[in-house]
TrEMBL record:
It comes from the Bacteria. Belongs to the metallo-dependent hydrolases superfamily. Adenosine and AMP deaminases family. It comes from Albimonas donghaensis. This is Adenosine deaminase. Transmembrane segments: none annotated. Keywords: Hydrolase, Metal-binding, Zinc. Residues 8-322 form the Adenosine deaminase domain. The lineage of its organism: Bacteria, Pseudomonadati, Pseudomonadota, Alphaproteobacteria, Rhodobacterales. GO terms for molecular function: deaminase activity; hydrolase activity, acting on carbon-nitrogen (but not peptide) bonds, in cyclic amidines; metal ion binding.
Length: 323
């Protein structure tokens, strides 16, 4: 195993369907006679161009997984892939909107299935997994409240937080305050995508309105030095995904990515993969890109994994077992 691949890693920003291995999706599609010529390219990666097409391709991949057994297999495969790149602990973004359409019974069945997959991956590789039910921004604040109620109502031991993903150009962060209040009241950790396509004001609004513990991406905070200082002072962790930002053309090159400048300014940053087979990445490639752009070596990567573990939403006993 290459030295970067073997380093211990923490993955806090990974969407379960966005991480679906292409071979598994092809198998699911073939079994149901669903054509994939316009979804999977001859190079073995998902086909999309630009963020809107990416979200549409993501939804098509998500729809390939229909039964509890499909979801069990997906969770196990995603976590085994993580473990193969040295990930010790992963928080998976999951979505009741993709699998349960508001139905508590289907949601409970789904959670049982992915927990079974997570337990199988843990038995095989040692990886520990927790789940973050994630609201979908484009579906609007009412659906987010329903998702938060399902997240809390499940009372599931692997559910540790609430997230918000999807198109940052739709709705204001404050629209989702009622959903976040439900999760906060129940003691869940709070994170949301912000500062990916939206600028620093999007990050600041999300922090203020949603009382976030962490931010997914958050990288465009770099455009406002006062916000950077606020993130550093408050210890708000950014679960960044540099390879995702490059694939979605938020930045042109590894060297342009603000992760190093954020870190130098004292912000707690982590490295994650977001939707690896969509963005032709994995944890080892992220580390390799950062190592060549910024000269980071083992000491930096160990510090980054430590910062991520400190920001994880699991309990301290779990954290102590992983460290
Ligand atoms: N859902 C999955 N990946 C995403 C991303 N990079 N931004 C927003 N929503 C997402
Ligand atoms: Zn994401």
């Amino acid at each position: 195993m290459s030295p970067l691949k073997a380093l211990p890693k923490i993955e806090l920003h990974l969407h379960i369907e966005g991480a679906a291995p292409v071979a598994l999706v092809r198998e699911m599609a073939d079994a149901r006679g669903i054509p994939t010529d316009d979804l999977i390219g001859p190079d073995g990666f998902y086909i999309w161009r630009g963020f809107t097409e990416f979200l549409a391709a993501y939804d098509r991949v998500a729809a390939m997984f229909a039964t509890p057994d499909d979801h069990r297999r997906l969770a196990e495969a995603v976590l085994r892939d993580c473990a193969a790149h040295g990930v010790l602990y992963a928080e998976l973004a999951i979505s009741s909107d993709h699998v349960a359409e508001g139905d508590a019974g289907r949601w409970a069945e789904y959670l049982a299935a992915i927990s079974e997959g997570a337990a199988a991956a843990e038995a095989a590789t040692g990886i520990v997994a927790r789940f973050i039910p994630t609201c979908i921004r484009g579906l609007g604040p009412e659906r987010a409240v329903a998702a938060a109620r399902l997240a809390v109502g499940a009372g599931h031991p692997r559910i540790v937080g609430l997230g918000l993903a999807g198109d940052e150009r739709m709705h204001a962060p404050a629209d989702f305050a009622p959903a976040y209040a439900i999760a906060r009241e129940a003691g869940l950790g709070l994170t949301a995508h912000a500062g990916e396509f939206g600028g620093p004001e999007s990050v600041a609004q999300a922090l203020d309105a949603l009382h976030l513990d962490r931010v997914d991406h958050g990288v465009r905070a770099i455009e406002d030095p006062r916000l950077v200082a606020r993130l550093a002072d408050r210890g708000v962790h950014l679960a960044t995904c540099p390879g995702s930002n490059l694939a979605l053309e938020v930045y042109e090159d590894w060297a342009d990515h603000p992760i190093a400048r954020l870190r130098e300014a004292g912000v707690s940053v982590g490295v994650s993969t977001d939707d690896p087979p969509f963005f032709r990445t994995d944890m080892t490639r992220e580390y390799a890109g950062l190592s060549s752009a910024f000269g980071w070596d083992e000491a930096e990567f160990r510090a980054i994994a430590r910062a991520s573990l400190d920001a994880a939403f699991c309990d301290d006993a779990t954290r102590a077992l992983i460290a």
